[in-house]
Amino acid sequence: MKKAILLSGGMDSICLAYFLKPDIAYTIDYGQVCSDREILISQKICRILEIEHKIIRVDCNSLGSGILANRKSIDNSPSDEWWPYRNQLLVTLSLMRAIKDDIKEIHLASVKSDKFHKDGTDKFYKIINELSSYQEGNIAVKCETLEYYTHELVEKYKVPIDLLLMAHSCHISNIACGFCPGCLKQLKVKQELNIS
């Protein structure tokens, strides 16, 4: 059974790629400001892990909100990094590619700290899996990482530190800014893992 993952080049998806070793990894350029670096890191990770890598490009920047789109957040945004219906968009775009690739499972890496977003919860993934499984292709959408924090994933999956240190988590730039939520999360994970 062919499996795919969504690979952003961040720590969580790198952990999942290392553990799962899927047939294909999809990196999606949906108009986020840091897409170039996400693609570059994802390509490198796939070369190292010998995973086929495919890039999906659909410019949805005009629909975005918050720092990922370099825009002011809309009023009902739960955080500066929130992009309306982002995970739903990413799952949908990957499913559109996956059905052509004869993929039967798509895996995503959302972690415990993502649960303040509705699309980072177990309930969301159950609903999106039911919807995807109902439609043509019957592709399962899975997120087996929800009960873990990032540092716990690194330890559970025994991810090599040199692979992890390649991650790009910055939300506002193709060069890590050091102060956005993504960069701060990466620094926190390094501290939790005692990486200097």
TrEMBL record:
Q: Which UniProt keywords apply?
A: ATP-binding, Ligase, Metal-binding, Nucleotide-binding, Queuosine biosynthesis, Zinc
| Species of provenance | Ancylomarina salipaludis
Q: Which GO terms describe its biological process?
A: tRNA queuosine(34) biosynthetic process
PANTHER family annotated for this entry? 7-CYANO-7-DEAZAGUANINE SYNTHASE
The molecular function terms of the Gene Ontology recorded here are: ATP binding; ligase activity; metal ion binding
Enzyme class, one word?
Answer: ligase
| Reaction equations catalysed | 7-carboxy-7-carbaguanine + NH4(+) + 2 ATP = 7-cyano-7-carbaguanine + 2 AMP + 2 diphosphate + 2 H(+)
The pathway is: Purine metabolism; 7-cyano-7-deazaguanine biosynthesis
Q: Which family does it belong to?
A: Belongs to the QueC family.
What is the official name of this protein in its record?
7-cyano-7-deazaguanine synthase
The record, for Pfam families, names: QueC
